[in-house]
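Standup notes
- HV: blocked on the assembly model, inputs below
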Amino acid sequence: MENPKKNVDKNLFQLANRPEEQGDKIARPSTTLLQDAFRSLRRNVFVMISIILLVFILAMSIIVPMVSDHSYTEQDLNASLMKPRVPGLEKMGIFDGKETKNFVGNNVQAATQKANVAYDNASDYMDVEVVSEGNGSPNSAEVKVTYDKYGAKDMADDYYYFGTDRLGRDLWVRAWQGTRISLLIAFVAAAIDLAIGVAYGGIAGYFGGRVDNYLMRFLEVIVGLPNLVVVILMILILDPGLWAIIIALSITGWTSMARIVRGEVLKLRGQEYVLAARTLGASNSKIIGKHLIPNVSGLIIVNTMFTIPSAIFFEAFLSFIGLGLPAPDASLGTLINDGFTSILITPHVIIWPAILISLIMISFNILADGLRDAFDPKMRN
Amino acid sequence: MGKYIAQRIGYMLITLFLIATISFFLMHFLPGTPITNENKLSPEQREIILETYGLNDPLPVQYVKYMGGLVTGDLGVSFQYDNRGVTQILMDRIGPSMQLGAQALLIGTILGVLLGLVAAIYHNGFMDYTSTIVAVLGTSIPSFVFAALLQYVLAVQLGWFPVATWEGFSYTILPTIALAIFPMATCARFVRTEMIEVLGEEYITTARAKGLKGSAIIFKHGIRNALIPLITVLGPLAVGLLTGTLVIEKVFAVPGIGQQFVSSVTTNDFPIIMGTTLLFAVFFIVMLLIIDILYGLIDPRIRLAGGK
C-alpha cells in the first residue's frame, strides 16, 4: 500500500512563527473555587431562576414591612376577614375584594332575605343573581350573591392585597413579616450550625487521635438522641420566642456539618501542602484557617444551603403544632397555622403563606442541588 | 454478630435511661404545677390533688417511682383525662398511627422506586424530567401544606374523600397520600441516581455484549443492584414519618399518637408529653439499630469487628 504522505510537496509547509515562551503562557486567567462554581451555576437556568426568586422574596420581606401603611400587629376588627383586593387587577374581576356566596331558601325572596341578614342589610353593595327560582319546597330556590365588602364597610380606598385575617390584620404585611422572621431564624440557625460544626469538625479532624476520639464519642451521643424529641423538649423549657426556636434547632443541627468537615479535614491534613506549611513554621490555627478550611469550603457551602430550607421547615413545623412564636408575632408557620383553623370558610388566609414557604423551600433546594453539582468536579462535562 | 447486637442493645438502654432522666427533670423544673391556674380550688383541695398525684414527694422519690414504673411499662397518670393511665391512652391511639405510617411507607416506597426506575431507564427523557420535578416538589413542599391542599381540593371542594376523622378505610386515603409524598420523592431521587450509576457499570456492558435482551439486563442486573442501597434510606424515612404524623394527624383529625401529643402540648399534660417523647425515642433508637444491622447484613464491605 502506498503511503499518501509521500506525494505531498514539502514546500507547501512552513514553520509556524511560535516563540519559545508562548508555550508557558496561561491561556485563561486562573479562577478561584467560587468563580469556577459560579460559572457552572450560571449555565443552570433553574438555579438562576431560584436565585432571582430568592433575592426578590428577601427584598420584599425587608421592604414591605418597613414601607407599608399597616403594621403587622395592627388590628381592625371592622375589617376582619376581608378578601384580597389589588388595584388594577380588580378591574379584571379577580382580586376585587368581593365575596361570592350562594344562599338557599323556599323561594327567591327568602334566599335573598338570608343574604341580607348575613351581610347586615347592605343591599346597595349586594349583587343578587338568581340561580334557580325554586318551587316553594324547602330550600329549592338558590341565589348567588356577590357582596362588595370594601364598599359596604366604607373602605373603597383601601387595598388589602392578600386580604385580612380574623382580627383584621393586613395579611400582605403579615406574610412578608412572617417571611422575614422565617428567613431570619433559618439564617441564624444555619450560621450557628456552620460556626460550631466547622470548628468542632475542624479540630477533631486536624488533631486526630485522642482528641478526635473524645469529640466523636460525644457527637455520637448527641446524634443518638432523637432530633424531634430534643427540639420539642428545648422549646417547652425555654420561653417561647425567636431564640427558643433558634437554640432548639442549633442544638442538634450542627452535628452533620461537624461530621462532614471532620471527614474531609482528616483526609486533607495528610497532604503535602499541609506538611510544607508546618515545616515553614505555620501555627495550627493558621493551617486550619488558611489551608484546610478553604479547601473544604465547597462542602461547607453546600451543606449550609441544605441546612437553611430544613430550618425553615422545622420552624414552620413547630409553629404548626403549636410550639412556635407567640402571637402577635408572625412567621410563615404561625400564619399557616392560623389559616388552617379557618381553611373551610376563608381559604385566602392560608394560601399566600403556604405558597411563599413552598417557593422558598423549592428555590433553596434547587440552589443547593445546583451548588452541589457545581462544586463537584466529577459532575463536570 | 450476636455480641454486637447485645452491645448495641446495651447502649440503647443507656440512651433511653438518659432521655427518660433528662426529660423527667426538665419537666419538673418547669415553673408551676398542673393546677397553678385553677383559681377555683381551695388550698385544701390543692393539697389533696398534689398528694394523689404524688407531686408533694421530694423530687428524688418521684424520680425513683417514675423510673420504677417505666420498667413495668407504667408511664404514669394523665392530668387531663380523668386519671387514665398514660400507657393505656397511648396504646389506644397507637393503631391509627401505625396503620398510617405503614401504609404511607409502603405506598411511598413502591411508587418512588417505580418512578426512579422509569426515570433512569428513560434518562433525559420526558419521564425523567417529570420524576425530577415530582422529586423536587415532594421534598420541598412541607407535608402540612400539601395535606391542607389535598384536604381542601379533594375533600372539601370535590367531595371525593371524607374531610377528616377516622371511621374506615376511605378515611385513611388522604392522610396516607399526604404522608407518602416525602418518602416517594426521596425514594425516586435515590433510586434514579443509583440506577443511572448501575446502568453505567461494566457488568451491564458485558451483559449487553453477551447479547442479553434490554429487559433482561434491566431486571436481572440493573434493578437488583440499584435497589440494595435503598435499605439505607428507608430507615431515616421511617423515622421522618414520625415528624410527618404529628402534623398530618392534626390536619385530618386522626386519633393517633401524634394528634394526642399536639393536644397535650397545648394543655401542658406533662405525663403524656413525657410518655410520647419516650415512645418516639424508643422508635427512633430501634430503627437506628435495625438499619445498622441491615447495613452489615447486606453490604459485605461493612463487616462488623468480631466476625460473624
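- HV (later): unblocked. Chain A has twelve helices and three strands. The longest strand of chain A covers residues 98-105.
- Next: hand off to the docking folks.
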